[in-house]
Amino acid sequence: MTYEEMFDLIIETAEEDDRIRAVTMEGSKVNPGSVHDKYSDIDMTFYVTDIREFTSDKDYMKRFGEILIMQMPEDFYNHPYDYKSREPFTYLTQYKDGNRIDLTFIDVNDLQVINLYFKEPRRVLINKDSFEELSDIETDAFFYISKPGEFEFFNTVNEFRWVSNYATKGLCRDEFFYARHAMEFLMMNMFIKMLNWKIGIDNDFKVSTGSSSKYLKRYLTSEEMQRFKGIFAGSDYNDMWDKLFLMYDYFTELSTYVAEKLCYPIDNEEAKNVRDFMLQRRADFDNNKSF
């Protein structure tokens, strides 16, 4: 089934079902700044008279095609969904034909409250009862990179430097995944925040790099993008050490830039001291490694 055929089927389903009182579309298809291609999801919301009739029907999404895999994020092992409630519920469904539908159900009784907090781009497709709470949202300002406060900036710099010690300790101990996790999750999360802040500054904080910063290359020069790719290490320990220092130095450069532009203080003496400590551990690794 093509995207257009799937879209028409969803609309037809909603129009013919009296339990569905309104339909809105969200996601990349209504955000002009997003990528639109065959991999794009169909993100929709059904506003229904009694959500329990839909949450109890685990076969509901089969009407749109042959399901490859489905997920229900509101019903998870550590926060199971109360199926007696009228809380919002989402079916994330990947179909074998390549289409994916992220379909959220909201009980019309909660419409007014939920709508107060909804700021993402949205297009109203069906509004059988002319709900005043539903209207198109054209701007994608909700996704713009946010300017950090001074304390958030300080905490981000501090956390990056702190967890660099985890990476060096893991490398010295031959704890491969521990070191990898420190570099590619703990440190990288702080690095990406700082890189986004630089992009935000350069664009007056009126841009978005998308979910998981997938649009970074839109705002980085080809040289910057290559430099960013270059901080990701292979599985060799020496390469991990080399990339650790590349990441650390790149972060120092970015954080200094952001601090200067936002007029925030930054402790460059600490940055040097932590780096010197990393060099000591690199020497320990080179002198003592038995693997």
Q: Radius of gyration in whole Å, from Cα?
A: 24 Å
Spatial gap, N to C terminus: 54 Å
- Low confidence ranges: none
Task: Give the helix proportion (percent range).
Answer: 40-55%
Q: How many beta-strand elements?
A: 6
Main β-sheet description:
6 strands, mixed
Number of DSSP helices?
A: 9
Q: What order do the strands of the largest sheet run in, or round the barrel if closed?
A: 3-4-5-2-1-6
Give the oligomer, counting copies of the same chain as homo and different chains as hetero.
single chain
Give the integer mean of the pLDDT values: 93
**Which band does the percent of strand residues land in?**
5-15%
Overall 3D form: elongated
What structural class do helix, strand and pairing data support? Answer: alpha+beta
Order of helices and strands: HEEHEEEHEHHHHHH
Task: Note down, in words, how this protein is organized.
By secondary structure, the protein is an alpha+beta fold. The chain is built from nine helices and six strands. Strand 4 (89-95) and strand 5 form a beta hairpin. The N and C termini lie far apart (54 Å).
Main attributes of the structure:
alpha+beta, 6-stranded mixed beta sheet, 291 residues, elongated
Give a short overview.
The protein is α+β, with helices and mostly antiparallel strands and 291 residues long.
Strand-helix topology:
Layout: H1 3-16, E1 20-26, E2 42-48, H2 52-55, E3 67-71, E4 89-95, E5 100-107, H3 111-116, E6 123-127, H4 150-172, H5 176-202, H6 216-219, H7 222-229, H8 237-262, H9 268-288
Parallel strand pairs: 2-5
Antiparallel strand pairs: 1-2, 1-6, 3-4, 4-5
Helix pairs in contact: 4-5, 4-8, 4-9, 5-8, 8-9
